[in-house]
């Protein structure tokens, strides 16, 4: 919730007037509950989307980073209230026992933005291209040159990729 990637994504979206909700998944930080290996965390995202919808009654844009992107896409992709999705540092090759399946994105016709670094240790450029290529339009993959998973030293470029895409997809 407090890492630099999430903070900068929040700034980019908030700059367009979107209300932004950042939260910790169950068992992270001071959150209650226990890590549920991606299953319960999808419900956490659904709960957050429900709250945003009830509180603001605005079209929703989902943005998630790393594990948050992987589980959040599963909740936001099929949700008709969500008009667009942003996946930052999409994990494909985790170093632990996690396994990510993005086959559900094959039916996601809403605008999709994927932003990763060329040196992301959890997803090579080739694997990201293979993930994004067969997805339905509209979609965009942005690779930030020399950036790692956390976009160290390249957060400005990550923010700019989000801002440019939001202008094109949602309008200014």
CATH superfamily: Alpha/Beta hydrolase fold, catalytic domain
Low-confidence stretches: none
Name the helicity range.
Answer: 25-40%
Beta content comes to 5-15%
CATH architecture: 3-Layer(aba) Sandwich
Structural class: alpha/beta
Sequence of secondary-structure elements:
HHEHEEHEH
- Number of extended strands: 4
- Write down the CATH topology: Rossmann fold
Compute the separation of the termini in Å.
26 Å
**Widest β-sheet, arrangement of strands:** 1-2-3-4
Gross geometry:
globular
Rounded mean pLDDT is 88
Notable traits:
172 residues; 15% strand; Rossmann fold; 4-stranded parallel beta sheet
Description:
With 172 residues, the protein is of the alpha/beta class. The chain has one domain (4-169): Rossmann fold, CATH 3.40.50.1820. The protein has helices spanning 4-14, 39-56, 67-76, 125-132, 155-169, and strands at residues 60-65, 82-88, 112-117, 139-144. α3 links the parallel β1 (60-65) and β2 (82-88). The longest helix has 18 residues, at 39-56. The protein is globular, with a radius of gyration of 15 Å. The two termini are 26 Å apart.
Element layout with pairings:
Elements: H1 4-14, H2 39-56, E1 60-65, H3 67-76, E2 82-88, E3 112-117, H4 125-132, E4 139-144, H5 155-169
Parallel strand pairs: 1-2, 2-3, 3-4
Helix pairs in contact: 1-5, 2-3
Brief summary of the model shown:
The chain is α/β, with parallel strands linked by helices and 172 residues long.
């Amino acid at each position: 919730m407090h890492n630099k990637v999430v903070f900068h994504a929040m700034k980019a979206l908030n700059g367009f007037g979107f209300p932004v909700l950042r939260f910790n998944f169950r068992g992270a930080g001071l959150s209650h509950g226990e890590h549920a290996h991606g299953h319960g965390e999808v419900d956490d995202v659904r709960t957050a989307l429900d709250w945003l919808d009830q509180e603001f009654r605005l079209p929703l844009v989902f943005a998630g980073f790393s594990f948050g992107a992987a589980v959040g896409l599963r909740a936001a992709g099929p949700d008709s209230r969500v008009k667009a999705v942003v996946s930052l540092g999409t994990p494909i090759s985790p170093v632990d026992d996690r396994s990510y399946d993005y086959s559900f994105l094959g039916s996601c016709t809403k605008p999709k933005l994927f932003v990763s670094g060329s040196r992301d240790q959890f997803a090579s450029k080739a694997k990201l291209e293979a993930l994004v290529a067969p997805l339905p339009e509209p979609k965009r993959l942005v690779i930030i040159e020399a950036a790692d998973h956390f976009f160290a030293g390249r957060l400005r470029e990550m923010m700019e990729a989000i801002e440019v895409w939001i202008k094109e997809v949602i309008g200014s």
